[in-house]
Every structure is written in structure tokens, then in C-alpha cells.
């Protein structure tokens, strides 16, 4: 067991290598530098792109994202199942032996996304697990290894397999210039827990990721709960997340936060204050904030233009960039998934929230 572990660690360090310095994505104070250019960056999200089975569709989406002037794409780097998988999946979790699927219906689908991103020069945020049950998530680990989503962070068997999965993904793309950042989880929460639980897990996991790949940025992927400024639910720490405390973690290079007033039971006018609260915290920590997901189920332009402006206005003062939720496009099978928040390429929504936003960013000095 010990011999095998030492052997595996040896292979991992032998595989480590640095992308060329000029092509790296880095933090530069509270801003991001990509390919040597420090500015405010706009991006988007696509949870589904790594699960497409048609390379032409993957290429169409990356071409359209690039043509739109968006530079960062956040994708799901996980797809966990427990048994009898059908279709695309990345990892099968079981107490009697888990497997990582590197086959044609496995991580080779994510390979296609990385390859297309490399071709067009778009940079990827790739995360390793979902807090939510979609595509398996922590629930799939709980099904295999017991406990609950609240004890997932400290469950030795779950964490051992999660780290194996992280090593498998990083091993494939550590040399790629298309990686913007590794992300520990999508929207990690630990309801009712002391905020030390996520703080400790994020500290240890980010140190492990840095050991595997010292040349790419690392971030948490949280919603940004736990920040001073207001007494409403998202500002509090009831979900076990303390944004300000987590910004202090050495191996986390930037902060993330999300914005869904509709799901959080606050008005849309909540947005600009929420953005300011995070920009203030990031400025104090000397790290960029990335406004990583935001959406409304309707009236997209009317509701979100003021959020984008509030974020851009802080471009030298805490905010490094943003990524709306989520990208929509026409695929060979028809329209990509529409969850109500989707902004489709070529639509009127895309004009005001992508074209106009990118133009306003380009006008910033
Ligand atoms: C950091 O940004 C400043 C301008 O704000 C620039 O002069 C400098 O070259 C940047 N450094 C890197 C490493 O990109
Ligand atoms: C990416 O977009 C830019 C700006 O529109 C364009 O000049 C470039 O040719 C595009 N790259 C590819 C590979 O299509």
C-alpha cells in the first residue's frame, strides 16, 4: 500500500511541468493576467459541454464564445455515478472499488473541451465535485462511502477517492495553457457546520492541488456567503461558508461568488451591494474576485445590466472579471439546455449582456 502510494506520487511529480510563462493565467494584484495582458475579463458557464458526444458541437460552442469576446469558460469537470452507468460519466463510486473512466465516454469528452479551448484561446475553470446532486456530486460519494454531505468534507474514504479523481484530471491537463484555474467544488456548503470545516478542507485540498500543479491558479467555487455588509441570509454563515476567512487560504488565488436573488429570496436590487461587499473583501485580501455565476429566470437584460456595471466599475478595485450563467447555443441535437437563465448566442439577450458588456470592458483603460 505504502509502496504503491510512493510510486504513484513519484509518477505525479515526474509528470509536473510548467506551461510557458507568457501563456499563463495568473492573478496580478486584484486583477487577472492572461497571456501577459492584465485587464477585466468576461466569461460564461457551460455545465453540459463536457458531456457532449459530438466534437463538432464542442468546437461550435468554443468558436462562438471566442467570437463573442468572452475569455473564460467554466465547465463541470465531474460526472459521478454509482452503478450501471449509461452515456457519458467520469467516475463510478463504490465502496468495493471506484473507477475513473478514461474511455471514449469518459474523460476523453473533457479532453475535447480542453483541445477546443486551446485552439481558440479561451481559458477554462474546471471543478472537481458538485455540492448539488446533479451529475452525482457529494451525494454519490455519500452513497458509496456513507455519512452525509455535511460529513463528506471529513470522510476519509470519500476524501481519498476525491483526491484520486483530482489527480486524474490534473494529470491530463497540467501542461495545458487552456487552464485558467482548478476549482475545488461547485457551490460547496455545509449547512449548520462551523465554518472551520470548509476552511480546513479547502486549505488542505488547495495545498494538494498546488503540489500536483504549481503553475495554475486554484479557487474554491463557493457562492460567496459570509461577508460583512447586510443582515440578509446570503451575507451570513449559516451554510458553513465564510468568504472573508476563506480568502486568507494561501493556495486559493482568487475569490468566487455567485448571485441568484430569486433562489435566495432577495430582490434583484440586492445585486450591486452584494458585488461591492465582495470587491471590498477581495481588495482587503489583495486577491481578485471573480463574479463567477449570476442569473435571473426572466427579464435577463433588465435585471442583470446593473450587476455587470457594478462589477466593471470595480475593475481596478477588487473585481477581476465575471461569468454569467449560462451559455446557450444551437447544437446538432437542437438548442442547448434552457434552465431559464440561459443567454443564447445571437439572441437579443446576448446583445445587451454579452456584446455591450464586452464593448464596455474594452473601453476601460
Ligand atoms: C500586472 O499589472 C500591471 C499593470 O496593472 C502590469 O504593468 C504588469 O506587467 C502586470 N504583471 C504581470 C505579471 O502581468
Ligand atoms: C477568436 O476570436 C478573435 C476575435 O474575434 C478572432 O480574431 C480569432 O480569429 C478567433 N480565433 C479563432 C481560432 O477562431
UniProtKB/TrEMBL annotation:
EC number: 3.2.1.78
InterPro entries per record: GH, Glyco_hydro_5, MAN-like
Catalysed reaction, written as an equation: Random hydrolysis of (1->4)-beta-D-mannosidic linkages in mannans, galactomannans and glucomannans
Pfam families linked: Cellulase
Domain Glycoside hydrolase family: 53-328
Uppermost EC category: hydrolase
Gene3D superfamilies in alphabetical order: Glycosidases
GO process terms (BP): mannan catabolic process
Membrane spanning residue stretches: none
Keywords: Glycosidase, Hydrolase, Secreted, Signal
GO terms, molecular function: mannan endo-1,4-beta-mannosidase activity
Protein's name in the database: Mannan endo-1,4-beta-mannosidase A
Organism lineage string: Eukaryota, Fungi, Dikarya, Ascomycota, Pezizomycotina
